[in-house]
Amino acid sequence: MATVYVATDLRLERRIALKVMHGHLSDDTVFQSRFIQEARAAARLADPHVVNVFDQGQDGDMAYLVMEYLPGITLRELLREQRRLTVPQAVTILDAVLSGLAAAHKAGIVHRDVKPENVLLAEDGRIKIGDFGLARATTANTASGAQLLGTIAYLAPELVTRGTADARSDIYALGIMLYEMLTGEQPYKGEQPMQIAFQHATDSVPRPSVKNPGVPEPLDELVLWATERSPDDRPLDAREMLDRLREIERDLSITPVITRTSPIGVLRDDVAATGELTAVLPATSTGPTASMEEVDNATRLRRATQRRRAKGGWLIAVVILLAALAGGAGWWFGSGPGSLVAVADVSNMSFADAAARLQEDSLIAVQRDENSLDVPAGLVIRTEPPSGSRVDREAEVTVVVSLGPAEVQIPSFIDSAEADARAGLDTLEIRVDAENATFFTDSAPDTVVGVMITPADGAEPFACGDGCAARQGDSAQLWVSLGPAPDVVGDSEGSARSELEGVQLVVADESATETSESIEEGRVIRVLGREDGGWLRPGDTVTLVVSTGPPLFEVPDVVGLTRDEAKAELEAEGFAVNWALFWNAVPNDLTEVTSQDIEAGELRRRGTEVYLQLTVTG
Questions:
Q1: Which of 244, 383, 401, 485 has a CA between 20 and 30 Å from the CA of residue 161?
Q2: With contact defined as beta carbons under 8 Å apart, do 113 and 16 qualify?
């Protein structure tokens, strides 16, 4: 809503920042009131970590603010350069921003636009928060209309859902900013702003240590506390969060490097010496005689010479100062801290890309391979030293590249107890399905009868009952015995159905029938299972084979045959033969069968006796 210029205050001879509202907004009373409100809000704050506002005014249609000029960069520019900050850097910046916001909250002012772009990092080490253009008093905390002010990436859930903001909304934005400083990225991303806003309202911010394992747990907890979705669960204001940060600083032995500055203004030497902020100025002659005193040429020459000498002294001092700065810069970038470079984050890159990225920072990549369950083969797992560490230029950085999951040898688990098989597979980093495949087998119940491996790379599953080679991260399903299926041979059909259905086998409505020499009629001869002959599983369909009794055979016609011929033919068909005893004494050739008690063609069981009537022939 404005353009900021570097300007010179001609009256006080100092550099200032001049913030001029855009001309096309001059007719908008809402923007004008917000512009003036920024000046009033910031002017009420007397804190070394808040950008000072010196003046506010109007030049025709052009409204402007006169502010403190801070040569340096913003936190956003620092994040672009380093991607993510070290823990001491993040703590130092957060300490300063919380100090400034604590003063604002104490004065009843909510910033409502806390983000890296509004955190200024001066060249002399000062850290200040500025741009109170969206600030409002805590008593007037409702967003106007349906418009949400503030950057969407740092917007508190209550601003998304209810359009209200208080000091705890600033705390939420600070938590998001701390997450970004520690991890190098924002927790929520989306193609559309509303997608990000929806995530703020429905999701919880993850721990920074998930993205950066080097983040200490106390800072993890501080981020989670500051970004609770419910405002009541967050710190009450910046002072409460600052007190907790100071405890963390003591626990982690971190001392923020913060430059403290005096209030704006210049103290005279005698005031600085006495410590008194109020002093009587020495009397000066202001009468007409003093103002009209003549100055001769000698006096003017003497004064000009003195000015030239003073100017020459200043030039010499400036040259010496520049030489010292040049020497200091040479030391800083040659052998001091400036010669160090940060190790870039090259995780999930190929080794070639990682080596090229590190070479940009004058670092030498050395490959080392390592198995990994989480990172695909050929991509970088991590670097040693880790990303963010500062090392000398031309130093070697070990780039750990994934070989993918390690190969393991699975032993045979056949006839092992299910619990033992699960423990053995877990030890080998093979994921075991929660659900077993169960079968009716001759093995004891709850023992393993097979193992089926499903590769993590999507290859076809394969059996591993007798042991096999697999890779960590593959999954396995155990085949477990339920013991033998119920033996229903000889049971009645109804009893057999009940028993089989009791173990979750489905019995076909239509039973098969067969004759049986040994199983009486109406009893089960056997159970027909799977067509492939495999083990039965609960839910499989089986068919009962029920006996119709012994088989029946046709009685042959032996009338007209001799006694022995008739006997031989009947016995060949499985029938018993009988006749009157006295016929045994008659020669066979003189006998002839005249009738049989069971007529030819009738059906009888094997073993049925046929009685013959005989006569003597010619």
A1: 244
A2: no
Separation between Cα atoms, residue 102 and residue 108, nearest integer Å: 10
Q: What are 549-576's pLDDT values in tens digits?
A: 888 889 999 999 999 999 999 999 889 9
Bigger pLDDT: 359 vs 151: 359
The structure tokens listed for 181 are: 């400083």
Check pLDDT > 50 for residue 288. no
Chain centroid offset of residue 527 CA: 53
CA–CA distance, 416 with 411 (Å, rounded to integer) = 11
CB atoms near residue 248 (< 10 Å)? 17
Q: Which residues of 130-143 are buried (b: 16+ CB within 10 A; e: fewer)?
A: bbbbbbbeeeebeb
16 φ/ψ angles, rounded to the nearest 5 degrees: -135, 165
Beta bridge partners of 6: 17
**Which residue, 25, 62, 91, 47, is CA-closest to 245?**
91
For 250-275, how does the pLDDT look when each residue is reduced to its tens digit (9 = 90+)?
999 888 865 444 333 333 333 333 33
Q: Which two tokens stand for residue 367?
A: 């490959």
The residues with which 605 forms a beta bridge, in sequence order, are 552
Q: Is 113 a catalytic residue?
A: yes
Query: What DSSP character marks residue 175?
Result: H
- Rounded-to-integer distance, Cα 162 and Cα 197, Å: 12
| 3-class DSSP state of 566 | helix
Omega before residue 550 within 30° of 0, cis: no
Amino acid found at 329: A
Phi-psi region of 35 (alpha: psi -120 to 50; beta: other; left: phi over 0): alpha
Structure tokens at 492: 């009645």
Q: What is the mean pLDDT of the segment spanning 333-337? A: 52
- How far apart are alpha carbons 301 and 293 in whole angstroms? 17
Of the pLDDT bands very low, low, confident and very high (cuts 50, 70, 90), residue 302 is very low
* pLDDT of 148 above 70: no
- Of the listed ranges 199-203, 277-281, 327-331, 494-498, the least confidently predicted one is 277-281
DSSP line for 416-482 = -BHHHHHHHHHHTTPEEPSSPEEEB-SSPTTBEEEEEEE-TTSPPPEE-TT-EEEETT-EEEEEEE-
DSSP codes joined into one string, 352-374? HHHHHHHHHTT-EEEEEEE--SS
Contact (Cβ atoms closer than 8 angstroms) between residue 612 and residue 595: yes
Helix (H) or strand (E) holding 183, with range, is: helix 167-183
Active-site option among 113, 131, 166, 237: 113
One-letter amino acid at 129 equals I
3-class SS at 32?
A: helix
Structure tokens at 501: 């259905």
Beta strand 14-21 with 2-9: parallel, antiparallel or unpaired?
antiparallel
Model confidence at 584: pLDDT above 50: yes
Higher pLDDT: 276 or 436? It is: 436
Q: Which residue in 94, 104, 93, 91 sits closest to 38, CA to CA?
A: 104
| Partner residues linked to 528 by β-bridges | 543
What's the confidence (pLDDT) of residue 338? Answer: 55
| Three-state secondary structure call for residue 42 | helix
Rounded Cα gap, residues 51 and 384, in angstroms: 40
Half-sphere exposure of 99 (CA within 13 A, CB side): 20
Helices 87-106, 217-226: inter-axial angle, 10-degree rounding: 30
Q: Are 47 and 56 in contact (CB under 8 A)?
A: no
